[in-house]
User: What shape does this take?
Amino acid sequence: MALFRTIRKLTLPVHTSNSTHLMLLGRVVSSKAETFLSGTNANYLEAQYLNWSKSRGSVDPSWDRFYESVSGPTLKIEEFEDEFSPKTIGQNKTSRSEKDDKEAKERIKLHLAVQNLIRSYQARGHLLAKTDPLNLSIGAGWLLKTQKPTMEIKGVDSVVVAREIGTILREEHMDTVFELPERTCIGGNETALTLREIIRRLEIVYCGPIGVEYMHLFDIDCLQFMREKMETPGCLQRTVEEKKLIMRRLTKAVYLEKYFATKWPAEKRFGLEGGESMIVMLEEIVDSSTQLGVESIVMAMQHRGRLNMLVNVCRKQLTDIFAQFKPMEPKEPGSGDIKYHLGTFIHRFIRKTNKYLKVSMSCNPSHLEVVSPVVVGKARAEQHWKGDNQGDKVMAIIMHGDAAFSGQGVVYETLQLGNLPNFTTHGSIHIVCNNQIGYTTDPRFARSSPYCSDVAKCMDAPVLHVNGDDAEAVAHVAKVAIEFRCKFKKDVVLDLVCYRRFGHSEEDEPMFTQPFMYKKIRSMETVDKIYAKKILAEGVVTQADINRWEKEYNDTLNKHFELAKKVTKLSIMDWIDTPWTGFFESCDPKKVKETGICETSLSTIAHHFCKAPEPWAFEVHKGIHKILEKRAKMVKEGVADWAMGEALAYGSLLRDKVHIRLTGEDVERGTMAHRHHVYHHQGVDGATHRVLDTLYADQSLYSLHNSSLCEFGILGFEVGYSYSSPNLLTIWEAQYGDFADTAQPVFDTFIVNGESKWVCQSGLVVQLPHGIDGAGPEHSSARPERYLQQADDDEDVIPDLDDKNMPLNQLRAANWIVCNLTTPANYFHMIRRQIALPFRKPLILMTPKVGLKHPYYTSPFKDFLLGTQFQRVIRETGPASKDPKNVKKLIFCSGKVAIIIDELRKEKKLQDKIALCRIEQLYPFPYDLILKEFCFYPSAKVAFCQEEHKNQGPWTFVRNRLENLFGKKVECISRPPSAASATGIKWIHAKELKELKEKIIAM
Assistant: This one.
């Protein structure tokens, strides 16, 4: 121990333990040796030395000489001198021979190479994994082709995984025993293996039917979990009963598709042929999830294999599925949807755990990935209603196509929501049904990476690639995925590598574009036959067992086929995926509830909204104090601006136990800094004061959150959230109305027609700041013409104006509501009406920018009280209304242009000559009130004025309706037609505004 005492004096701190002796040897040896006697290498030597000192037999005998020299009495400090040590010590020669020293170094080098070899397989073994049942593509092949495009690849060299093989580790080392590092589980209970066995086990784990990508994960516990689940010997083994269950599930999946093909050979259904093991994967997840405490699963899926999934996972009645194949008159009104877009829900009993599990399959349009954020939003909402703050009870499963997963940006937008605190669902399971082809485009031309799933690695999610023809491997990765998700509450991706047996659809001829692939596919057996051979060889089942299961299922199919013949009416309601039990029964269908509030509530909310937190407890920005002073002054005067009207609407709904969720890129403060519902402490980072959270002790939750800078994913998320319950108000606000353009697929496939297609109601409010005020083409127009053009209304049909229930009937028949409001009181009543209606409709709302702080956009408090209501039209109340016969011009308008008209007629003293009527609700169109206003001014010339260009804005929608109603032509006052929504040049903007004003006052 004299040596150790000497070393400690030279290099050790006072409190360093003796356990670090060996590590420190590396600091005093020669500089050449330092490359391997330092850091983690020294840790390895130290651990091995401790084992050797206890029992020499536990370490290979070749280490004896080295460790004897370290602890022996003949070793001197001079032997560990390096070039930086003082030269006063005598130059004694080492007692060890150079040969022994070289052998020791070589031995250490080999052990380090083994460590690197293991890590290389963990990080890159997936490149050699046999995950493709067609054996046409593997990751290593893609890599070698990109590196050496001229190289003819006949086989794949393992050098792409581990370069130690054949260089440092050669054939003569194959039977040498090496200690296994702690960061691997391939040894099981064994701590040392021969190199040959180490490589064999690594090949089985990482280069078999499963390819695992997990070494990019940040959390060390996640890494170790994946190692344990994938590397532990025997982890892929299944019990006899589990194997039988897999066989029965494959039988059902395969025979259902065969039955479809037999009965309806020419019917497009996007069958699951070639990927039937997906049923095994989902069933394994469902079974295991109930063991882990999950009570509800919300699923999204592409169209391929949906019918099979509905039957075998969601347990939809076969009779209902078969009935979809014949033309039938629907029971309910609506457009309906094709069978492979439909969803369902069920409370399914899981025999394995004797528990019930709610399974919901969301309806999905053909715009494949648009459903992904919708389902995540539904799952988040359900977690809210269940009080599931950690995602223990509710989770989402999202199934994707391979080409869509790598090609559509909404996938990234959805994935990046995974860890955001106000959007997370605490982990979703993503399953890629990897057909290895997108319609007719093969992967070489569809993506720039070896795997379709590579985008998931940005999000700290493990990816498990699996061969779809290896049913047991499929079941294993499914179990690993659900356990990972439930343990770590993070996303996980399963890449089920399979193929399409009959092309894109049953009508397709894939040999046109993929002849080589489909020659191979035609030789492939179905996955049930492949697995049957395996378990028959193992003696798990007999051929009689398999024949019996096939006959039983065929008999079941035939029985339901006969029952389906008796179905004569199609019920869209049978396919609803999120029922609102009891809501419609509890509402009076002919009544809209009161939207006004009492004076006490108004006063409580208004004064609370003007009150700053105590200065000793929270430091507010000085600009906030000025805003609050102005608010307090308005409250004293009994007047509300837009921000106050909004606060009164939200505050009163929170009081009424209505959950509100408002998200968007800048909603906490408001893009135009008008809202300020969240104050930020000026002296403490991250400290906030949420103004409306403390209105009432028993109020509902106000989820106000700034979102990430994306529209498509966030709007889809909020659509899904709005589906969860009728007793909530979900609002998405664009930073500017123009920015909703990037979310257009959500509008087109869910919001505008979700009820018509799937009987799926939503009370979602979309707020789009709108107004042409010189801000340029991308910060001006919310494109109201787009939303009005999608209104399902016949411009040539005028409703019964004598019907007192016409306004409510119009709303009930509408596919959504489109408004452009000009008063805070009207905004207040509109928002509260969303909850007061006996049904739910999406609301597209053009909100003001300039008007947020303009005196024209104010309302007296009396307009908020009980007995008041939303005004579809705001009629003229000025001088012109006092003498209607002398009015020369009646101008109908909508939105901010009313400010221009009002200010201009005051300037020109034309208040008595020009009457102004503001259409607040553009759709459903308020025929009755507009006709009354028209008749009130018998001599007036009629015009419709808008600040938008003539080929844009409401004009294209209102023109025919006004002219059909009045029986005469209506003048259009607008900017001239334009390709852009607004000019970005100030001079042109001023010129257009001048010309617009001239048209307004022209008689």
Q: What stands out?
A: The CA atoms of residues 619 and 650 lie 25 Å apart. The two ends are 111 Å apart (CA to CA). Residues 1-36, 73-93, 149-156 have pLDDT under 50 and may be disordered.
